[in-house]
Amino acid sequence: YARDCLKKVKEVTLKLEVSLGPDTSDLDLRTGIHSGQVTAGVLRGQRSRFQLFGDTMNTTARMESSGERNRIQVSRATADLLTEAGLNKWIIPRSTKMFVKGKGEMQTYWLTKRSKSIKSKSKDQITELETLGEGSESEESSNRTEKEDQDFLGIEGMNKTGRLVEWNVEILTSLLEQIVGSRGEVVDQSQTLSHPERKHETGGRTVLEEFTPIIKLKRFDAEELKRRGMATSMDIGDEAKSQLRNYIASISGMYPDNAFHNFEHASHVTASVKKLLARIVNTHEGNGLGPSIPSDTVMDLAGHSYGITSDPLTQFAVVFSAVIHDVLHPGVPNTQLLKENDRWAQIYKKSIAEQKSVDIAWDLLMDDDYATLRACIYQTEADFQRFRQLVVNTVLATDIVDKELQALRKARWETAFSKDATGDASNDSGVESEDRKATIVIEHLIQASDVSHTMQHWHIYKKWNERFFMECYSAYKEGRADSDPSHNWYKGEIGFFDFYIIPLAKKLQSCGVFGVSSHEYLNYANANREEWVREGEALVRQYVLKFKEINESLMAAPEQSP
Questions:
Q1: Residue 224 belongs to what H/E stretch?
Q2: E strand map for 88-162
Q3: 287, pLDDT greater than 50
């Protein structure tokens, strides 16, 4: 029964990853078993239910809490019963005794018995589900590795990348349906769309040269506001959905197998962007977000902050940018690409990885195979230009190292959100002010999402911090970094929290746009910094040992014939 529970949890979490997004399949079950007498009964009260009591239940709870994910830990009492039944091969003793509260040191055991195959599942899925809970004497960590997670064929034959592709497609499809619904018309695939696309192709500018400090967002007159307020989503059709799925699948294939900058990271960033966009609060009296535009004929459609959520095209562009922002990431920073005189560095000079990602993803989108998809995104030259500008600015915002871009963002922030000597907010007003604020908020939204693991639960931060270390350490071992990251990783993370993460979280809070999410991000950032101060040095040592173990196992593995 315990093994069946482990398998069912894995089936459910793999399936949910398609609808709930990245990290869902990381949810696992920890199981503990103890045998003995119990007291049973139904307690009276508003929540009457059958319950079990006694020392046996307490010990069982300790078996669970001191166990490991995807494994079944049993007590000596349970192990003795299995041995008496001639099933001693089902168990192996844990290599170290466990200290159990109220019991002292206890010898515990791992349950290793394989269960019968489930014929309705694929071969690869059966293999994964059968090995849940198994281990060896020398194995004190979960049997399921991250590599196995990525390679494992799960629900409906999809691997992890396939499940993330489907999740991204669902998010973008929903936004496309809102775009088409807001236009209130059937998608037009006429040749009129090709004019702005060809015009852009012959522009000859780099992505960085297209950057603009203020993006002009769409405004709506009173009549359009009334019509749009009654608009509903429209089905974009099977052809557009198929093209979107093929496009995202192609994008996922353009992400290298980096430890950190990979398609799972892009999906993790997308999840944060989606969350923050959904949390943008209404502009109502008392929250400091009242529109400063006096005209009754130019307004924010839904009463949301600075027009960001009024236009579904804006939302789509920001989410789209999150998906593509690290395409073909080299696994090293831009400064290293400049030192290596990389061919992309020769082209772009600055923000190399970011500009390359935009160009590669954009060129793919302009392919004839995605004409119907593009027709759903934009129908006019104005929409095309706005979509392009949003993608350019949003992806470039993920370059947090370029000092010139950072100084420009800081100056615009001061203009838009700083307070004067009396403590009053800046009197910057008008349509340009609204657009400036919207542009700045979008940039900070993607920046926060790009490092959102630092502002989430500790286990998520630790997971992605380890991956980033592995990527940097691997680059150093390959001669693509000047210094050993393990020497300064602990102090570097503290500095990263103090001088970037926490100030960024405070900006999310001070701009007043994101409601409770801004408090949540800041609280997690502070908590993770404190936890890192306590545990960081030990974790870095673990990272180094794990890197060495992985490399030694790869060197020891026999080469596979082509």
A1: helix 222-229
A2: 91-93, 98-100, 104-106, 109-111
A3: no
The whole-number average pLDDT for the span 258-277 is 95
Comparing C-alpha atoms, which of 56, 72, 434, 395 is closest to residue 218?
434
DSSP characters over 2-57: HHHHHHHHHHHHHHHHHHH-TTGGG----EEE--S--EEEEE-STT-EEEEESHHH
CA torsion, ordered 328, 333, 339, 340, to nearest 10 deg: -30
Task: Report the relative pairing of strands 91-93 and 98-100 from DSSP bridges.
Answer: unpaired
| Tens of pLDDT, residues 420-462 | 444 455 555 578 888 888 899 999 999 999 999 999 999 999 9
The answer to whether the CB of 273 falls within 8 A of the CB of 450 is no
State CA 225 to chain mean position distance. Answer: 34
Q: Please give the span between the terminal C-alpha atoms of the chain, in angstroms, as a whole number.
A: 42
Sign of the CA dihedral 299, 303, 305, 307? negative
**Higher pLDDT, residue 253 or 418:** 253
pLDDT at residue 497 tops 90 = yes
Please state, for a pLDDT cut of 70, what percent of the chain lies above it. 78
Cβ 175 vs Cβ 181: under 8 Å: no
Cβ atoms within 10 Å of 321's Cβ, excluding its own: 27
Q: Which residues contact 427 (CB under 8 A, 6 or more apart)?
A: 420
Q: Are 430 and 458 in contact (CB under 8 A)?
A: no
Structure tokens of 554?
């790869």
Decide which of 266 and 98 is more confident. Answer: 266
Q: Cα-flanking dihedrals φ and ψ of residue 27, to 5°?
A: -70, 130
pTM, two decimals, is: 0.77
List the one residue out of 221, 236, 11 whose CA is nearest residue 125.
Answer: 11
> pLDDT digit string (tens) for 518-541?
789 999 999 999 999 999 999 999
Q: Which two tokens stand for residue 256?
A: 């290298």
Dist CA 464 CA 453 (whole Å): 7
Q: Give me 452's structure tokens.
A: 């959102």
Instruction: State the number of CA atoms in the 13 A half-sphere of 338 facing the CB.
Output: 9
Q: Do the Cβ atoms of 51 and 69 come closer than 8 Å?
A: no
Residue 204 DSSP symbol: -
pLDDT tens-digit map of 334-350? 999 999 998 899 999 99
Give 315's contacts (C-beta < 8 A, 6+ positions apart).
175, 178, 277, 308, 309
How are strands ordered across the β-sheet holding 31-33? 31-33, 72-74, 109-111, 91-93
Q: Does the pLDDT at position 160 exceed 70?
A: yes
What token pair was written down for 196?
């702005």
* Among candidate residues 164, 146, 145, the one with its CA nearest the CA of residue 155: 164
CA distances from 357 to 251, 260, 317 (A): 10, 16, 15
CA distance 397 to 445: 9
Q: In the prediction, which pLDDT does 316 show?
A: 96
Helix (H) or strand (E) holding 73: strand 72-74
Q: Please give the average per-residue pLDDT across 356-360, as a whole number.
A: 96
Query: How is 348-387 classified by DSSP, letter by letter?
Result: HSSSHHHHHHHHHHHHHHTSGGGHHHHHHH-SSHHHHHHH
